[in-house]
Amino acid sequence: MLASAAAAFSPIGNSASAADAPKADLVNRKELRVCADPSDLPFSNQKGEGFENKIANIIGDELKLPVVYTWFPKATGFVRMTLNAKKCDLVIGWGQGDDMVLNTNAIYRSTTALIYKKGTGLDGVDALSDPRLQGKTIGMQQGSAGATLAAKYGLMANVHGYPMIVDRRYANPAEDMMNDIRKGDIAAGILWGPIAEYWAKRDGDPLVVVPLVKDVGAARIAFRITMGVRNGDDAWKRTLNEVIRKRQGDIDKVLLDYGVPLLVDDDTSTEMITKPRTSASAEPSPSGAASTAATPAPASATP
After folding, report:
1. What share of the chain is helix, strand, coil (3-state, %, to 5)?
2. In the 3-class helix/strand/coil scheme, how is 206-246 assigned residue by residue?
3. Structural contact between residues 141 and 163, judged by C-beta atoms closer than 8 angstroms
4. Cβ(90)–Cβ(33) below 8 Å
C-alpha cells in the first residue's frame, strides 16, 4: 500500500514521465571550461601547444567565450575528477562510442600508423602483411588496436611492449618508442597516427610514418574522435555540433598542420583528407560506430 501511494505522487505515477522532466543545465555559459591533460602532446599541454588547445580556441572564438582549463592527467579517474565533478564542461578529444561521456559528432577520423627508420630494409612497407616485417622486433602499445592487427599477421613473437595509459608528466611511451627505433633496438613501431606523426619528427632524425590505410579493412584500426560532454548535457552537445559544422574547415587546418593523418568520415573509405573541408562537406558522423576502452583507449584518444 505504501509503495502504491508513493507511486501515485511520483513523476512515474503521473502522465508525465521522468524522462520528460527538464534536466539541470550545469554548463557554464560565461566561459568555455575545458578538461585537459597538462602534458599530453600532441593533444594538449599547459602552454597551449597541442592541437586540442588550438581546437578549443576555435570553439571559444565561435561561442565568443574565453577558454579556461581544468588540468588532470588522462589516466584513471580523468572523467570522474573533471567532467563529472562539474569542474569543466568539455573534453576536446574522446573516442566515439565510449559511454563515459556524451559524444558530439566526430571532429576527425584517423588511423594507426607504422613507423620505421629509412634505409633499414623496410622502405616501401605500407601494410603489416608485408613479409619484410616477419621476424622483426616491433614496438607497440599493449592492448591497442595496432597490437590486435599485428597479432592477425603473426608479428607478436618478437614484440616490444609499451604502456598505453600513463601519467604523461612522468612518462612518454611514444617518445621512448621513437628513440628505440632510431637506436635500432626495435625495427619498427605501430602507433596511433596522430601521435606517431608528431613524435617521429622530434628529438632526432625524422622517421618514416605510414598510415596503415591498406589494413583498415583487415581490422578496426581507424577511429572517429569526438568531443565529450557530460551525459545528460544534450543541449550543450547540440550547440557544439553546430560549432563543429560551421568550423570544420578551421579544425581540419589545425589537424593537418600537426600532421594528423585524416581519413574521410566513412567506415568504408580509406581516402585521405589533404586539405580542409568546407562546412557543406563536413557531414555528421553516422551513428553506431564505436570506439571502446578495450581497443582504442578513448580516455586519451589514442587507439
Report:
1. 30, 20, 50
2. CCEEEECHHHCCCCCCEEEEEEEECCCCHHHHHHHHHHHHH
3. yes
4. yes
Cell of 9: 505522487
Q: How far apart are CA 94 and CA 103, in angstroms?
A: 8
Q: What is the pLDDT of residues 177-225, one digit of tens each?
A: 999 999 999 999 999 999 999 999 998 889 999 999 999 888 889 999 9
C-alpha cell read off for 168: 604523461
Instruction: Assess whether the previous peptide bond of 42 is cis (omega < 30° from 0).
Output: yes
Please report which helix (H) or strand (E) contains residue 93, including its range.
Answer: strand 90-95
DSSP letters of 18-43?
GGGSPPP----SSSEEEEE-TEETTT
Residues forming a β-bridge with 42: none
Alpha carbon distances (Å) from 194 to 144, 213, 221: 14, 14, 13
The answer to whether the pTM exceeds 0.70 is: yes
Which three cell numbers mark 240? 557544439
**pLDDT digits 0-9 by tens, 215-263:** 988 888 999 999 999 999 999 999 999 999 999 999 999 999 999 999 9
Beta strand 102-116 with 188-192 is antiparallel
Assigned C-alpha cell, 169: 608528466
Three cell numbers at 225?
574522435
